[in-house]
C-alpha cells in the first residue's frame, strides 16, 4: 500500500499536503506541477488517500466511489479511449490525447451527487495542460464552487494553462530527482542506470528513463543500426527516411530525435554541434506536422552532404 515513505524526492510537497489535512486547511483545488515520470501521480494518489480517509485499497484498485480519476483520451471510431487502452489495442494516433469537454461534463455530473463513503469527493485530472480553452473554461465554475469536493490537477507546468485555472488552485510544484534519488528508484533496473544516454534523456525522471529504455528496445532492428551513425550515401538515406516514416508513429519519431540528440551529445565528434542543430530543425518541422517522410529525407540527405 502506498504511503509517504514510498515516494522519493518530494518530501516538502508531502509535508505541505499532510499539514493541510491535519489542520483542515484544505483548498478547493490543487495544481501539482512538474515533468512527467517524477512521481506526480504517486503524490496525488497519496493525497487522495489522506483526503478520503480509510479504504485505501479501493483507491489503489481504482474503485473508490468518491474518487474520479480523469485521463487524457484519444478518439477512436467515435469512442474515447485512454492511453493504456490505446496501447493495449495497438492504436497509434497522429494527434496527442487530450482532456475533452465531455469529460468535464462527467466531472460536473459526478460532483452533482453526495459523497457515498467519505466526507468529500476527490477528482483528479491528469495532464490538465491538454485541455483546450473551451474545455478549461467549462471547468472554471467547478473550480470556484466544488461543493464537498477537492480537485487535483496534474500538469507539466503553468505556462500552458489558462491564468484563470492557475489562479483558482493552490500550487504544489514537484521537481526532477537528483542522481542519488534516481538511483534509489531505479535500483532494480541497473541496465538503465548504466546507460548514460538514457539517463541524460530522462532529465531526473525515473518514469521517463523506464519509458525511454522500453522505447529503445522496441525500435525495429534495422533502425537500431543507424542510431550511432547516419547513412553516408543518398540512396541509403532515402530508404531510411521511408522506413522511419513507415515504422514509427509521429510521437515515436519525436522521441527518436530526442534520443539521437542526447546520443550525439554523449559521443563527441567534430560535427556534434551541427548534428544536434540539424536534429532540432527536424523536430521543429515534425511538431508543425510537416510530412514526416519529407522531414527525414531532408535531414538525412543533409548528413550525407556534410559527410561528403
Structure notes:
- The structure is a single chain.
- This protein is α/β, with parallel strands linked by helices and 308 residues long.
- It has 2 domains: 4-175, 3-Layer(aba) Sandwich (Rossmann fold); 180-307, no CATH class.
- It contains 16 helices and 7 strands.
- It has helices spanning 11-22, 40-52, 56-61, 83-89, 101-111, 133-144, 163-166, 179-185, 190-193, 196-202, 206-218, 221-224, 234-247, 250-266, 272-287, 292-307, and strands at 29-33, 67-70, 73-76, 79-82, 121-125, 149-155, 170-173.
- The protein has a 5-stranded parallel β-sheet with strand order 2-5-6-1-7, sandwiched between helices.
- Helix 6 (133-144) links the parallel strand 5 (121-125) and strand 6.
- Helix 10 crosses helix 11 (206-218) and helix 13 (234-247) runs antiparallel to helix 16 (292-307).
- The longest helix is centred in the last third of the chain and has 17 residues, at 250-266.
- The mean pLDDT is 92.
Describe the secondary-structure layout.
Elements: H1 11-22, E1 29-33, H2 40-52, H3 56-61, E2 67-70, E3 73-76, E4 79-82, H4 83-89, H5 101-111, E5 121-125, H6 133-144, E6 149-155, H7 163-166, E7 170-173, H8 179-185, H9 190-193, H10 196-202, H11 206-218, H12 221-224, H13 234-247, H14 250-266, H15 272-287, H16 292-307
Parallel strand pairs: 1-6, 1-7, 2-5, 5-6
Antiparallel strand pairs: 3-4
Helix pairs in contact: 1-2, 5-6, 10-11, 10-14, 13-16, 14-15, 15-16
Amino acid at each position: 500500500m502506498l504511503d509517504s515513505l514510498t515516494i522519493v524526492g518530494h518530501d516538502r510537497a508531502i509535508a505541505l499536503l499532510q499539514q493541510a489535512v491535519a489542520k483542515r486547511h484544505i483548498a478547493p483545488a490543487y495544481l501539482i506541477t512538474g515533468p512527467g515520470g517524477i512521481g506526480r501521480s504517486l503524490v496525488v494518489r497519496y493525497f487522495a488517500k489522506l483526503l478520503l480517509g480509510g479504504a485505501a485499497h479501493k483507491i489503489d484498485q481504482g474503485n473508490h466511489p468518491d474518487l474520479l480519476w480523469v485521463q487524457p483520451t484519444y478518439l477512436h471510431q467515435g469512442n474515447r479511449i485512454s492511453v493504456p487502452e490505446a496501447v493495449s489495442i495497438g492504436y497509434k494516433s497522429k494527434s496527442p490525447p487530450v482532456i475533452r469537454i465531455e469529460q468535464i461534463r462527467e466531472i460536473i455530473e459526478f460532483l452533482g451527487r453526495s459523497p457515498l463513503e467519505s466526507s468529500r469527493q476527490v477528482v483528479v485530472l491528469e495532464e490538465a495542460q491538454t485541455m483546450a480553452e473551451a474545455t478549461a473554461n467549462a471547468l472554471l465554475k467547478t473550480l470556484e464552487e466544488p461543493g464537498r469536493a477537492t480537485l487535483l490537477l496534474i500538469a507539466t507546468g503553468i505556462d500552458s494553462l489558462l491564468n484563470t485555472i492557475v489562479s483558482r488552485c493552490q500550487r504544489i510544484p514537484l521537481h526532477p530527482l537528483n542522481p542519488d534519488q534516481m538511483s534509489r528508484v531505479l535500483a532494480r533496473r541497473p541496465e538503465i542506470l548504466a546507460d548514460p544516454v538514457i539517463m541524460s534523456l530522462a532529465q531526473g525522471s525515473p518514469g521517463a528513463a523506464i519509458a525511454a529504455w522500453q522505447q529503445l528496445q522496441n525500435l525495429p532492428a534495422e533502425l537500431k543500426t543507424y542510431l550511432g551513425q547516419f547513412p553516408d550515401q543518398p540512396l541509403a538515406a532515402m530508404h531510411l527516411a521511408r522506413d522511419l516514416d513507415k515504422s514509427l508513429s509521429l510521437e515515436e519519431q519525436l522521441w527518436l530525435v530526442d534520443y539521437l540528440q542526447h546520443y550525439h551529445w554523449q559521443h563527441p565528434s567534430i560535427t556534434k554541434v551541427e548534428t544536434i542543430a540539424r536534429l532540432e530543425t527536424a523536430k521543429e518541422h515534425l511538431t508543425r506536422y510537416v510530412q514526416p517522410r519529407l522531414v527525414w529525407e531532408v535531414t538525412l540527405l543533409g548528413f550525407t552532404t556534410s559527410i561528403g
